[in-house]
Amino acid sequence: MFVSFPLSIHIMIEMYFRGEMMDLKIARTKISEAETLLNIQKEAFQSDLKKYKDYDTSPAAEPLDFFKYKLNHSLHYTIFLNGNIAGGICIMKITDTHYRLFRIFLSPDIQNRGLGSKILTQMEKKFPQVKEWSLDTPKDNKRTRHFYEKFGYKKTKENKINDRLTLVEYEKKKI
Questions:
Q1: Over the stretch 144-175, which tens digit does the pLDDT of each residue have?
Q2: Gap between the Cα atoms of 109 and 105, Å rounded
Q3: What is the pLDDT of residue 18?
Q4: What is the DSSP letter of 108?
Q5: What mean pLDDT is predicted for residues 129-154?
Q6: pLDDT reported for residue 1
Q7: Could you identify which of 40, 42, 60, 152 might form a hypothetical disulfide with 49, taking C-beta atoms 3.0 to 4.6 angstroms apart as the criterion?
Q8: Rounded to the nearest 5 degrees, what angle is found at the Cα of 120, between the Cα atoms of 86 and 108?
């Protein structure tokens, strides 16, 4: 079965922040956006790097060449807010019906505005062939665990990365 991947998702967020409407666009990442996105990713995950000291796999310690490799070997999307790059999404195709949300990140200065919920909802809608989604997140990060659980993700196991970091594996199955 041939699966076509959306090149762009464009929605107008029906909410105001500081008195102005926010325009959200999600489009396939261009290689020319890599450095900007990597800087946002590093900023978004910097506190996790300091906390967990996971210098081998932390998004905040990722080199540019590996980031570019992921762009070419995954479904990578750039999140634009009011025309500016605001974050990214990396999805890995495991099988035709199982995809992994490898990473989603937003610039810290626009987090906690409800954008993550809208983005995740739109991404899941754009892949109707997917019957199973999986992801992981730090065990002690109650905020992100709650975020995914409210979208129907269920805990399946835990993976200890080091003495400070344990990741909780989640999956969501559509019937």
A1: 999 999 999 999 999 999 899 999 999 999 97
A2: 12
A3: 57
A4: G
A5: 96
A6: 33
A7: 60
A8: 30
CA-closest candidate to residue 57, choices 159, 155, 157: 159
Beta bridge partners of 135: 170
CA angle 162, 164, 166 (to 5 degrees): 70
Residues in Cβ contact with 11 at an 8 Å cutoff, skipping those fewer than 6 apart: 24, 25, 118, 122
> What H or E segment, with its residue span, contains residue 162?
none
- How far apart, in Å, are the Cα atoms of 98 and each of 24, 129, 138, 142? 26, 9, 22, 25
SS3 state of residue 90: strand
β-strands 166-173, 154-160 pairing: antiparallel
Q: Is 98 helix (H, G, I), strand (E, B) or coil?
A: strand
pLDDT tens per residue across span 21-44: 778 899 999 999 999 999 999 999
Cβ(169)–Cβ(162) under 8 Å? no
Q: In what order do the strands lie in the sheet with 166-173?
A: 8-17, 20-28, 75-81, 84-93, 98-106, 132-138, 166-173, 154-160
Give yes or no for a contact between 24 and 15, defined as CB atoms under 8 angstroms apart: no
